[in-house]
Write a structure and sequence with these properties.
Elements: E1 7-9, H1 19-37, H2 54-71, H3 78-84, H4 91-109, E2 113-115, H5 122-132, H6 134-141, H7 156-167, E3 174-180, E4 188-194, E5 199-205, H8 212-227, E6 234-240, H9 249-257, E7 264-269
Helix pairs in contact: 1-2, 1-4, 2-4, 8-9
Length: 270
């Protein structure tokens, strides 16, 4: 979705689809599109581009059109409206529809398209903004007057300490290193616990040996573990990646949030 500014899709009168619903619907349509594209074939005696099976393409195209009208901001619907004028079932047309669906999904996941009727509470919105803007805070406190010492972020403990200080400006009871009952009698600790809001924040900072696969492995174990805590209604996994060690942030976020949609939110800040 290169070239998108942060755009708001006005959803209220069109079906009240929240972010999670929109992502789920788009993922289903993209999967269906893969099935459609798999039927690409040349028609004997017809010179030109290949076609897909119209009995699969037509209903999929109709559903894709409805979803995109509902999700895309009006200012970003020109490409879709141009496609709607092309009634044939060429493989190239199907690929363009698939590209629009994929681009819209990525735009929503990466925050370029914002759905106004999100189910997120005000507290969740504040938490997401704190985590998204954490690198800006780090940069700001290290631009001090007359060259005074800043606040070095060397490891996850530094991230936790600064993050807890920021959260205390918005939330009354922010606990660090809260014990979480574990499996097989072993306990672990959550990095930050917003008790009144029933929110956990798990903090990771990338380093040598802690990149995509390692992060994914660690958090995929942690997520169901924290779900069992009676005081946790939602988990935020915050990955601070100042050196851009995560090679595929979109893929990592998507894979982890699929573990428990609606419960876990992954924010990778760099």
């Amino acid at each position: 979705m290169c070239g998108y500014a942060r755009l708001t899709s006005k959803m209220g009168m069109k079906g009240d689809m929240n972010k999670d619903d929109a992502i789920a619907k788009l993922e289903l349509l993209i999967k269906e599109g893969e099935t459609v594209l798999a039927t690409s074939h040349y028609i004997e005696g017809v010179i030109g581009a290949p076609y897909v099976k119209s009995e699969l393409f037509s209903p999929w195209r109709a559903k894709a059109s409805i979803a995109l009208h509902e999700l895309l901001p009006e200012s970003q619907q020109d490409a879709m409206k141009d496609l709607e004028k092309k009634a044939n079932d060429h493989t190239g047309i199907a690929r363009q529809w698939q590209g629009l669906l994929q681009g819209t999904l990525e735009g929503i996941q990466q925050g370029f398209i914002v759905l106004e009727d999100s189910n997120d509470s005000d507290d969740d919105i504040v938490i997401e903004q704190i985590l998204d803007r954490f690198p800006d805070v780090v940069a700001s406190i290290n631009r001090r007057h007359a060259g005074r010492d800043g606040f070095a972020i060397n490891d996850e403990y530094d991230v936790q300490d600064l993050l807890r200080s920021i959260c205390l400006a918005y939330f009354d009871d922010v606990r660090a290193e809260e014990a979480v009952p574990g499996f097989a009698g072993k306990n672990s600790r959550i990095d930050l616990f917003l008790k009144d809001e029933a929110r956990f924040i798990e903090v990771k900072m990338t380093r040598n040996g802690l990149r995509d696969k390692n992060l994914g492995d660690e958090l995929s174990i942690d997520i169901p573990h924290y779900k069992g805590h009676p005081g946790c209604e939602r988990l935020f996994c915050f990955i601070y990646d100042p050196d851009r060690r995560v090679r595929n942030p979109t893929g990592l976020k998507r894979d982890l949030e699929k573990i428990d949609p609606g419960f876990v939110t992954v924010i990778i800040a760099r």
